[in-house]
Specification:
globular, three-stranded antiparallel beta sheet, eight-stranded parallel β-barrel, 346 residues, alpha/beta, 12 helices
């Protein structure tokens, strides 16, 4: 069936991936664009759910990475998301890795990127957040600068938390991108414990200054062993984190070996990530206390894919690469399927 998005995708696929990404965002913010987006996306699905003390309009959110500088919050909200997450933001501006750094694998409905936390820094990010009209749940995703060594990474994350705390609905700690050297080492052992301990202490300091409680979530990689998943689950609970986002992109390109871009460095997202991200979600659910919030992300290209995330144990889901291939109608399709799914559960 031909959709309203098909000619848009055909036109954008004539451009280089990052150019298409940037142009799509700029066009979405033009006067009148919201009406076009709503026509393609359909009516927003009203399916409120409360988790972590927050009221989500429905269970389908935007994953971090699409709007790194929080410039397009209101435009993206027109797609009917139940919540949005923007970033990753680092304390200081940085250009990210050299271009080209984004590659489409159309046959596999996938993308490889090695952006490297390209962003305009905290000051500009927070100015943009302050300009939004969107009143729904807004997650802010924080990271470290590439020039900051791992033994000083905690300082970057503490600063990001402190600055974002007054305006965030929740804060996501991103230590799982494969595109910043050695970042994923922070997911393991004492480095992880030290990071989580420092951030829960920083949040407590913010709250002691009279600020409200802001949930903290940890975003993890799909390239983890069962033992590592168990360790992370224990750490987030022990340190008082409020949720886990599973997963970031994968460095395993085995499923796309036939693609001419398979040898590109960076993280793989899209359809080939679905099964592995679901396995990580299921592993977390088996280790975490009942009801502990998990946001599932990775490989959602259809409503059926979203339901697999919920069946694996996710409470909410996020999409990004699916928007590239399916367009904004995917948001409503997934949200409607989630509404039916949870209505039937005891």
């Amino acid at each position: 069936m031909v959709s309203l998005y098909d000619p848009v995708r055909a036109a954008m696929f004539q451009l280089q991936p990052e150019a298409a990404h940037d142009l799509t965002l700029r066009l979405s913010a033009l006067p009148g664009a919201a009406g076009i987006i709503r026509a393609i996306a359909g009516a927003p699905v009203d399916d409120p759910v409360t988790l972590m003390g927050l009221r989500f309009a429905n269970r389908v959110g935007l994953a971090a990475g699409l709007d790194k500088n929080a410039r397009y919050i209101d435009a993206l909200a027109a797609s009917g998301f139940g919540f949005l997450e923007v970033g990753t933001v680092t304390p200081k501006p940085q250009p990210g890795n050299a271009k080209p750094r984004m590659f489409r694998l159309a046959q596999q409905r996938a993308v490889i990127n090695r952006f490297g936390f390209n962003n305009d820094g905290l000051d500009e990010f927070l100015r943009n957040v302050g300009r939004r009209r969107f009143a729904g749940v807004l997650g802010l995703n924080i990271g470290k600068n590439a020039v900051t060594p791992n033994d000083r990474a905690i300082e970057d994350y503490r600063l990001g938390l402190r600055r974002c705390h007054p305006v965030a609905s929740y804060i996501t700690v991103n230590i799982s991108s494969p595109n910043t050297s050695d970042l994923r080492a922070l997911q393991h052992d004492q480095a992880l414990s030290d990071m989580l301990d420092a951030l829960t202490a920083e949040r407590a300091a913010c709250e002691s200054d009279g600020q409200r409680h802001v949930p903290l979530l940890l975003k993890i990689a799909p390239d983890l062993s069962h033992d590592q998943i168990q360790q992370i689950a224990g750490q987030v609970v022990a340190h008082g984190f409020d949720g886990v986002i599973a997963t970031n992109t994968t460095i395993d390109k085995s499923q796309v070996a036939a693609s001419p871009h398979a040898g590109e460095a960076g993280g793989l997202s899209g359809g080939p990530l679905l099964q592995r991200s679901n396995e990580v979600i299921a592993g977390l659910r088996a280790c975490l206390p009942p009801g502990f919030p998990i946001i599932g992300v990775g490989g959602i290209m259809s409503a059926a894919d979203a339901l697999q995330k919920f069946e694996a144990g996710a409470n909410l889901v996020q999409i990004y690469t699916g928007l590239v291939y399916q367009g904004p109608a995917l948001v409503g399709q997934c949200a409607a399927a989630a509404k039916r799914y949870f209505a039937q559960r005891p």
